[in-house]
Amino acid sequence: MAAKRPGEAGVRRQERGRRRMQEILDAAEAVIAETGYEDATTNAIAARAGVSPGSLYQFFRNKDEILEALVQVFTERSRDFWHTRLDADTALLPLDELLDRIVHAMAVFKDERPAYWVLFHGSPTSARLARASEELHAGVAARLRTVFLWRVPGLPEERLDLLAKVSIATATGVFPLVMSAEGEQRGRVLAELKGMLLSYLGPVVGFGAVPRPVPAPAPTPAPPVT
Amino acid sequence: MAAKRPGEAGVRRQERGRRRMQEILDAAEAVIAETGYEDATTNAIAARAGVSPGSLYQFFRNKDEILEALVQVFTERSRDFWHTRLDADTALLPLDELLDRIVHAMAVFKDERPAYWVLFHGSPTSARLARASEELHAGVAARLRTVFLWRVPGLPEERLDLLAKVSIATATGVFPLVMSAEGEQRGRVLAELKGMLLSYLGPVVGFGAVPRPVPAPAPTPAPPVT
DNA sequence: GACGAACACGAACGATTGCTCGTACTTTGA
DNA sequence: TCAAAGTACGAGCAATCGTTCGTGTTCGTC
Fold it and tell me: Which of A121, A188, A203 sits opposite B123 (nearest CB)?
């Protein structure tokens, strides 16, 4: 007889089980990257993971719970990614160079993790994905706020939030255009995106390099690096 | 016995039939607006139209053909909409005023035709909707190119195209943010969008009002007004 | 008024999908 | 060593959805 509900707390996962969960999440990522979330069948995910459909439900209560777990993984991964790429020194660079790095990093991350992009972009027309993308956006927005704050220490919370959100929304909107462009054209579209963000952000966070304002302790505590 | 395949050419539609087709399209629009395209059931559309599921297939071969027809309707509707709102005189206004009208018109159209927005925004993560949104974007892009050309007659085709596409992509990206904002905040986000487009487009198409360049005949033939 | 075509109905088919269930093997811990 | 819990299987259930089909009604035309 089955002992306990799988998603419930109080299930003492064995080593083998934890490995399986990871395999399933990896499979889900791959399938989602190929077919999109709505078309990613639970059976397809199970097959991709080399596992029977039933086993899938030993670890996740339903399909949505897989999405949730994946979003959590991506949130952490994205946080680490941006933390290493957007440190205090980088933030103080001339704005165009900073944007260059950000936009370039986005492209890299997108190529490396296609499923991330699917969830990150998850359109507002799909209720299920809307929450996932919101969560992923929030993670990036938090980092952007910190970067902006490094450049302009006095910026009020509300303004920071708006700047970050609008910047992300812009990039989210333009990026499909970037990815659908071929060869040379892609660079040109990327340049437009950078130019747009530059002229939008410049007047607020400054175009040039920013001098170290204070030798005081860091404004935000460093997160644990993994 | 059933006479002919319904979607096929050579079906002599009666008055009643043409009315039914319109009712079905209206129903599809309403259902899509409420649930999104993927979740818009053919049965739900039929029920909404006050028609049996079978009758639906008297007029459309399958669900995708309904989408196609709807896209076509929207393309025409959108063309008329922007043609009346973005005429030659409007195009020569100071840029910030022009943008004000464009962005405001978008919001109006979105409120009036929620389903249009669903298809227009159709994310690149859904293969089916991608084509639909591309088609709708193309329609708006054509009008934007004309507007830009009115302001800067010498602008090369390629540049025009890029400007139009990037502008639309930006608006597409930021608009969900606009619509999710409440009350006062919405105006603030809209202002950001306008500011961004202003600083992006200004250097190319000019910030101020544009004087009538030539009293020559209109550069594009006026479309038939309905 | 009669014939064919268009219109209309709605039960039900076939395919798909998320998920369950009965069963059996493996690991853990006492 | 042995029972309880964890892991694994895969056939198949239940529900949904797009679509078909047999039948009956209305309309256009002569």
Answer: A121
